[in-house]
Amino acid sequence: MVAGASFDKTLIGFTLFRPLFDCWYAEQAVAQGVTLLSGCRVEGLVQKGGAVCGVRVAGEHDVVEAPLVIACDGVLSFLAREAGLHAGREPHQVALGVRALYLLSEDEINERFGLKGREGATYEFLGCTRGIRGGGFLYTQTDTVAAGLVVHLDSLKEKQIPPYELLEHFVAQPPVSLLLRGAQLVEYSAHLLPEAGLRMVPKLYANGLLVAGDAAGLCYTNGLTQEGMNLAMTSGWLAAEVAAEALAAGNVSAAYLARYEQELKNSFVLRDLKTFRRAIDFLHRDQLFTVYPQVVARLMEDVFRSDGHPKRRIAALLRQAMKGRVSLRQVVRDALEGGRAFLC
Predict the structure, then answer these.
(1) Which residue, 105, 224, 98, is CA-closest to 169?
(2) Which of 128, 238, 239, 254 is the most buried (most CB within 10 A)?
(3) Domains of the chain
(4) CB-based contacts of 207: which residues, under 8 Å, 6+ apart?
């Protein structure tokens, strides 16, 4: 902690245990009159006269009719593809997130992570994915700790390493293994994420159809943070508002629903995607996840080394850390490209 530093108490983050939160959230909707259908899979759209008017489901009912459908069926969004809003997703546009959930007592979590009360901690890791573009994370909840990885799907495909093997390798490494010692593994999950930024966002509306969340490609990373849930919830809120107005007006045409896209442009959602649109290509450079973590680690080891020998200048130590790993020309090129991606 820096002396004199202050914290803005209005900036508060939360972690959510989605199985519990989603159930609670659904209960709130049902209490307001929503009909919830679970245990059935949406398999396609129902279309009549060039307009979407429901969905086909597998289960007890073959068809659920609706004057307007909001597609929130994940990054692959077969519904949006069936409606002709996108032509399919490619591996370089998608990331895979894998997560393991570990059970620990609240006291153990607070002691290991240096927490008190309702505080939480999140750790981010780079250079832990065996040469695959991506990173790791570790975050606490009341009585559980989540550990996982997010990796680019095209890089994972190229390296041919099973994701569960990557995760096992990650949690076995210190300091992760020390923080998880004695914890009970209670859940494993995986999820595809949109990673191509603004260029991945399809047309967001058609006659009788709106697209929101991951299905709309509304997720991004700028190398420091990855945001998706807040974009998804905001897009869902805006889609619901436009849908309610369209239904009240008796007009669910694409022309009327086009206002939804404008609302997203006016919000932080598409503005943030535009702000970091250049970061996407920059973060597909393999050396960011392999070479540079090694260089920084070697440099820090040498800077803080105390072995009875005279200290060397940091510039000399940096050249030594770079030797055999990356050329000065490549570092300068990457620095310039990084500047264009994040500063321009």
Answers:
(1) 98
(2) 239
(3) 40-87+202-277 (3.50.50.60), 91-194 (3.30.9.90), 290-343 (no CATH)
(4) 50, 51, 52, 252, 253, 254, 257
Q: Are 181 and 224 in contact (CB under 8 A)?
A: no
Alpha-carbon distances, residue 236 vs 232, 263, 299 (angstroms): 6, 11, 46
State the pTM of this model: 0.87
213 or 15, higher pLDDT: 213
Q: What is the rounded CA–CA span in Å between residue 249 and residue 228?
A: 31
Token readout for 219 is 């997720």
For residue 200, how far is the Cα from the chain centroid?
14
Strand partners, 122: 139
Lowest mean pLDDT among 15-19, 107-111, 164-168: 15-19
Task: Tell me how crowded residue 12 is: count the other CB atoms within 10 A of its CB.
Answer: 6
CA distance 127 to 169: 12
CB of 120 within 8 A of CB of 139? Answer: yes
Whole-number Å distance between alpha carbons of 327 and 236: 47
